[in-house]
Amino acid sequence: MMESRSFKKWLLEQIESALSRPVEPAPFIVWCDPAEEWKELLQKSCGDVIELWPEEGHELLLRHRFAREERRPRVIWLTKQKSELTYFRVFEGEASFREITLLEALREYGVEITRSQEDEVKEDLLAYALAKLDEPLAKWKKITPDELISVGTILQTLADIGQPIENIISTERQNLFKRRVTADFGLPEPDLKEADKWRIRAVARLLATDAALKLGEEGFPTSDWIIPPGNSRKRAMELLNQWQRDLRLQPKLEILAEKADALLNLQPMMAESSCTLSEPLASYRGERTLFENETKQINKFENFIDLATYLARKKESYVHHAQGFWGQWTKKRVPWDILADFGKAAQVLRENDGVDKNWHTLNDAIAWYVEQGWQVDTEGESLMREWAIEEDDLFEVQKTLRKAYRSILDQTNTVFSEFTAQDNRWPEQTLLPYAGEELKKRHDEKKEPTAVIVIDAFRFELGKRLAAMLNEGQTSSVAFVRPCMAPIPTTTELGMAYALPGLAKSLRVSVDPEKGWTVHTEGFDQNLAVAGSRRNWLNAVYGVKPSHILTVTDVVKTGCKLPEGKLVFLFGDEFDTQGHEGELALSGAEEYLERYAQVIRKLRDAGYGRIFLTTDHGYFHYIPGDDEIMEKPEGDIHWKTRRAVVGKSLKHTTAIRTKVAGSDLECLTPRSVNAFKTYGGIGFFHRGTTLQEWLIPLLCIQWEKKAQKTGIVLKPVSEVTTLEPVIEIEPETRGKKNLLGEIDGSYLGRQITIKIRDAASGKMFFKSGDIVVSPKDDIRQVKLDKVSGAVGRYGQKLTLVILDADNEEILATADVTLKIDMDEWL
After folding, report:
1. Which helix (H) or strand (E) holds 457?
2. Which of 130, 334, 524, 560 makes the best surface tag, with the fewest CB within 10 Å?
3. At a CB cut-off of 8 Å and minimum separation 6, what does 641 contact?
4. pLDDT-derived band at 826, boundaries 50, 70, 90
C-alpha cells in the first residue's frame, strides 16, 4: 500500500492529520521554511482542498490579517524558523508547527537517500519532488540526474533553435541542467540570455571531438573545442550519435552544424596523408574535405588496374560514408554514393579484366558470362548512363572506368568470336536450348495457372537483375534464370518465332531481299515472322484465348483487370523501342525493370502462381570507331544490316559464319563489337553474335500457393517539421516469428509507397519512391521528397497514407499537422 502512495498524498495526510483535531478555535499549521523549498510543493498539494497562506510580507501584517479573518483550518507558510518569530509569536500556543527540510520529509516518506548521496542530490531535491509529486513511492527508488534532466531533454534543448532554454527547462531545474551539460557532457555552460550562441558553441565542441576521435587526436592540437577523454566525452559522443539518428531533430543538426563549422578550422588538421575513412564525420566541412582529398587521391592513378584496385579496396568505406549523416540524411549532401558506385564498378571490372585468358573452349566463355560476366554489363550500363556529377575530378574517374568497360566488352567478345569462327554450326555445340524449347519443357512440368511474358530485346543480364528484384524482400527465392540462345541472326523476326513454346525444331526459315523474313511450321500456314501471326498461332494451336493475349502496356494501366484462366501471354517492346531511340543508354534499364517487376506481381495477385519471362534477342550499346567498321560481305546477299548479313555463298575475310537454323542460308556477323559498312543506326546493336546479343534468359518465377503479403505497421507520427520528412515503418510479420526466430515462408515481401496529402483537397505534398519491404525487415526509415510546387501553411491538416505500390491498396493512414510554412520557392 505504501509503495503505491504518492508523495503528494502522503503530504496531504500529514497536513490533514494536524488540521482535523476537534479543537476551538480551528487548528492551523505554521510551516516554517527558511530554505524556501516548500512553497510550490504546498501550493500543488493543497490546491482547492486546504486553505494555504503563502506569506512573504511583514510579520506584523500577517498578525493583523490572522486576527481579522474567520478562524478555520489552514496552512500558513513562512520563510522563517520558529525561533525567529516576532509579531506572530502571540499565536504560537495555538499553532501546530512544521519544521522539516525536504530531505528529511522524503526520508520520512520512504525515499532511500543515503548519506553518500545526500550532497549529490540535495541541491536538486525540489526539482525531483516537483517532477515526481504524483508518482508512487516505487518510482522514487532511483534518484539520478538523468531522471530529471534526461539525455532526450538535453538533446531537445540543444536542437530547439530560436527558442529560450526556459521553454523546456523550468526554473527549479536550470541549475541541474547546467551541471549536467557541463559536468556530464563536457559542453559549454548554457547561456540563458543568448541560447542560440550557446547551442552553436556546444555543437562545435561535439563536431571537433568527433573529428579528433575519428581522424586521430595526434593531428589535433590541444583545444578547448575538444572534450577531454573520460565519461563526459563518451556521453557527448553518444548524444551526437543519437541526434544524427533522430528523425525529428536531424534538420536542426544540419543547420547548427553549418554554423558551428564556421567556428572551427578542421581543414589544416586533415592533410591527405592523415585522412582515413573509418567513420563518417559529423562536421560537414570535415566530411567534405575528406571527400575532396579522396577524389584528389583517386585522380593520381595513371592506369586502370591501380585505380580499380584502390577504388575496390575503398568501396566499403565509401558505402559507409554514403549511409552517414551527410551522405544520406541531409539536404546539403556529400556525394559519397557516386564514389561507392565507382568502387562497386571498379571491383567488378578489375575481377573480370583479362578473364578470357582462362578460356579454352566456347563453353568456357558462355559459363563465364552466365556465372559472373553479366555483372560487367550491369556496371557498364551504370557507368555509361548520364550521372548528376558536379565535380570535374569525378568525370575523369568515370571516363577511365567507361574506357575499361568498353575494353572488356570488346576483348571478351573478340575471344568469343575466335571460338565461334571455328565452326559454322557453333550454336549446336553449346547444348543451350532455344527459349521456346525450354519454356515448353517447364510449362509441361506442372498444371497450374501460368503467365508468359515475351519482351523484345531483353538480354541475359537484365533477366538476372529482374530475378534479384523479385527475390528481394522474400523469405526464400521465388525467381531464377535459365540461359537460352537466340537464333542467328539475333533479330526480332526469328527470335520471336523461336520463343514460341515447342516450335524450334519444326521451324522453316527463309528471307527475301524484298519481302523480308518468313518463318513457317507444319500445320500452320501463316508467317510466324509477323507479330499478328504469332498471336494467331498461340490462339489456334496452343489454345490461348484471344482475351488472354495482352500487351504489357495494357496491363500496367490503372484499373486494368487481368483475365482469370490457366494461361495468359503478355508482349512488351519497351527495351527495343527505348534502345533504338537512345533513351535506354542515357537513363539505364532500372525504371523498365521495376515496371516488369510490378507486372509480375500483378499477375501473381491475379492468381498466376507460375510466371515465365523470355525474349527474342539481347543487345549492347556501342559506338564503333572508324577502325571497327568494315566492308560488308560479298556474295548472294538476301538481307543485310550493320551487325549481320544473310545469304548464300557469302565471302569475307574476318566475319563469323553461322548456319541459319531451319534453312539453307548462312549468316555472316562482324567479330566482337565491330560493324559492317551498310545502312542502319549505330549505338544500340543486336542481330550479331556477341554474348550480349545471343545469350538470352528464361526467367522462371514460382510463388507460394497460399502466400500472402506482409502487412505494414506505421510507427507513431503526428507532425511534419521538415521539407524531407522521414517516416518509420515495420513489417507486420516482425512480431510473428516462431521459436527459432524465423518468419513463416508463406509471407511475401511487398512494394509500398508513402504519400502525404492535404486532408481537405487531397493535393500531394510529399511522396516516397517505391520501397521493398521484406517480412524479415526490422524497423525501416523512409525519407519522403517534397512534390514540386506544393504550397502549405503552418498548422495545415494533412493525411499520411501508405499504399501498396502495385494496386494502391491502402495499408495504413495517419492524421498529421504541417509544422512549417511551405512556399513554391522552397
Report:
1. none
2. 560
3. 489, 491, 676, 678, 679, 680, 687
4. very low
The pTM of the full predicted model, rounded to 2 decimals, is: 0.76
Work out the burial of residue 752: count CB atoms within 10 Å of its CB; fewer than 13 is exposed, 13-18 middle, 19 or more buried: buried
User: Whats the size of the chain, residue-wise?
Assistant: 826
Task: Note whether 80 and 89 are within 8 A (CB).
Answer: no
Please name the residue that has the C-alpha cell 534532466: 149
For residue 776, the SS3 value is coil
Helices 195-215 and 151-159 pack at an angle, to 10 degrees, of: 110
Among 481-490, 519-528, 793-802, the minimum mean pLDDT is found in 793-802
Q: Which grid cell is 137?
A: 513511492
Grid coordinates 524497423 are at which residue?
779
Q: Higher confidence at residue 149 or residue 295?
A: 295
Sign of CA dihedral 146, 148, 151, 154: negative
Name residue, grid cell 527508488.
141
Comparison of pLDDT for 196 and 117, the residue scoring more: 196
- Is 445 exposed, middle or buried, given 0-12, 13-18 or 19+ CB atoms closer than 10 A? exposed
Q: Which three cell numbers stand for residue 155?
A: 538533446
DSSP letters, 365-385, are HHHHIIIIIHHHHHHHHHHHS
Estimate to the nearest angstrom the gap between the alpha carbon of 337 and the chain centroid. Answer: 13
Residue 222: C-alpha distances to residues 205, 217, 267, 283, 627 (Å): 13, 9, 16, 19, 63
Nearest to 76 by CA among 28, 15, 44: 28
Cis before residue 489, ω within 30 degrees of 0?
A: yes
Question: Could you give the CA distance from residue 713 to residue 722 in angstroms, rounded to a whole number?
Answer: 22
What's the helix, strand, coil split of the chain in %, to 5? 45, 20, 35
